[in-house]
Amino acid sequence: MDFKDVLKDRHRWALQHKEMGGLVMGCYSAMVPEELMWSCGVLPIQFLMSHGNYEESQVILPPYVCDCSKSILEDYMNGIYGYLDGLIVSHVCETIRGLAGILSVRWPERFVQVFTAPAGKDPGARSYLKAELMSLAERLQRLGAVPMTEERLEAAISVYNENRGLISEVYRVRGENPGAVEAEQVLSAVMSAGIMPRPQHNHMLREFLKTIRKDPDVTGTRIILSGLLFENEVVEGSNLFPILRESHALVVWDDLASGMRYRLEPVENSRGGDPLDPLVESLMGPQPAPLRSPAERKAGMLLQAAREYGGEGVIFLIPKYCDPMLFDIPTLTQILKEKGFPTLFLEVSGPLAAGQMRTRVEAFVEMVSGLSGDSVWA
Amino acid sequence: MSNKEIAQVRKAYTKGYYARIKEAKKQGRPVAYTTALGPTELLYAMGVEVCMPENYVTICCAKQMAKDFCEEAETRSISPDLCSYARCGLGMMYAQDGPMGALPEPDFIVGAVSACDPHAKWWELKARHYHVPLFLIDAPYTLYGKAKPHDEIWMISELKRLADFVEEHTGRPFKEDHFRECIRLSGEAHATFAEIQELRKHIPAPRGMREMVGDLFYLITQAGRQESVDYYRMVLDEIRKGVARGEGVGEEEKIRLYFHNIPLWFNLQTLDWLTAQGAVVAMDFYTNHVWHGYFFDGGRFDSGDPFKDLARKWLFFDNHVGLPVKLARSLRSAREWGCQGAIFFSNRSCKVYSIGQPEQMRVLKEELGISSFTFEAEMADPRSFSMDRWTERVDLFLDIIANAER
User: Fold this and answer.
1) How confident is the model over A166-190, as pLDDT tens digits?
2) Candidate CATH numbers 3.30.70.20, 3.30.230.10, 1.20.1250.20, 3.40.50.11900; the one for domain B178-405
3) Which of A66, B117, B330, B335 has the most neighbouring CB atoms within 10 Å?
4) So what's the ipTM on this one?
């Protein structure tokens, strides 16, 4: 079974976990305390999203919200997530908070929490977050979860840290040998982390790393992707990747919500202290989500990755109506342009259409390979 | 004093307020740009002049200047899908212009990452443009409206962190007695505002949404100042007299409505048109549930700790509570103010207020039998709205309500 197969059969792991008596919690964004949930015997699964003809959700959500929220609500209303014991969404945008409110009203018997990981790193935020995590553990226990203990939390942190290390290794190997592994495979690997128990995922990642040839003889224009790609774009075949390949472009790194925006810094060792403390440190402060991090920081990350892996241009894939990402675009494009990195902005609504995108991506790659250094703005 | 005369008093004060900000800048006193949520009480206590670009946008809209500024921002890669407050405000910044000229440059900026996406990211763009420090207030979100003890403690911590930030960037020390006084004044202003809202229960309603959104200026920009208390006392006195005389906001009150969302600032005539049809907006979400949410729910500034009082006000802004609370507030507003119909403005520029509206409409119908009308537009972009089409549709809606009442 490879990672694409995992995504195709995306509910299998959650249902298995339920059969074994565990709880399953639907989550949105990596800024939720997955380690804490796992230590309580709860499997956190990330909502995977698909473009489609949203019908049920159109009655409840206004047309001017992103496809992410429409996709989650549509699946919820169609009973696809009927097995969930609840959901925990991180405050990464106002739309997801609003969606949590709708779900709490529509399914009042189900556990719903909007989790706020403070953007600051000060003592007040630290105390709040620790109290919030303890409160969450108690609430999960009332739902039937296993009580959180220091030992279980240490063990969960260890499993998740190993997972972060392996994902980082996949990114490093791909960055240094972009022809060795296709972008879809890397994204499938990260996305499947969100729906599988991490011990099994770690095993799959270790096997996956063994299969990557480290020295393929492939050359091309080195591209970084930033923004968001839906799961079905990756699994069922997006128009984007074949066009990139045909244009001799290689994805060397990404800053995708479904990719590298996963929280990849390891949680530090508690050194005999309370393991909640390093978990708190890991969750707070500037975050990969644009709402809780200045655009300059993201620009810095993109430039660092470009330097590290020889990135020559950035393609932004921004979902329509995603306000935090849209607000960042003028700053990001300006900073990157000042540093000589060309950018292409693609607003995404529904599946990426082949025709217009082909023209624009091909022109962009051609321009980048010619090192013209201009910004391409739509 | 008539409602029109009260409006003249407010307009003169508003003009003076913007002159005061410019004068402060000239005199070297610190000027802060803040989100419309404030917190003004803390900033005024520290001798900072508060300037709210969102409020300036509403004036821009009233003067029919918003379209040009929105377009100005859009030429600078600001997406037309983003909040029209932000687009118009950024357009004024880029053009260095506005309804009373360009706003003076800020010395620092206070945004709120907790409030909505633009309340964080718009201010980030401004801080970058002016090269000034930015402070973003964070806050917990209480989905069901029950703040846990650590929610309140963190909110207090955020406000104290802001006081430290202001001290650091202005050199002005925080003085608790000043802050205590500003909180006392703000509490009094809110309590008086609550009395005014109560009087809207009278039939005919002595004050409609058109008047109340004007009154709100003081609660937003002047909370913590004596002027806000004086204004609301004056309004309360005048309304009491009007109620005693049996005066309503319009000539005849046939239908009482509940209005949900921000008003169309570039077309407040929509509210006048309703009044002219005998349909009075007797209660509205915007003036009651946002800044005033904590007070609407029965809270008062009476803890004895000014930071705790202000923290509670912040925790119960509509922006910081979930749909279950929003539903309960809308139900109470429509029920207690005797509304027979509701207008829900689906605002493309404000997802935080608009997401969940269909659930509110459903509950109003199920629990109170109230029908709703909804329309889509943007509060600060006139390109999004057609008055003719709107009046045609609302007219039909009013007929439906009138027929149902017979």
Assistant:
1) 999 999 999 999 888 889 999 999 9
2) 3.40.50.11900
3) B330
4) 0.96
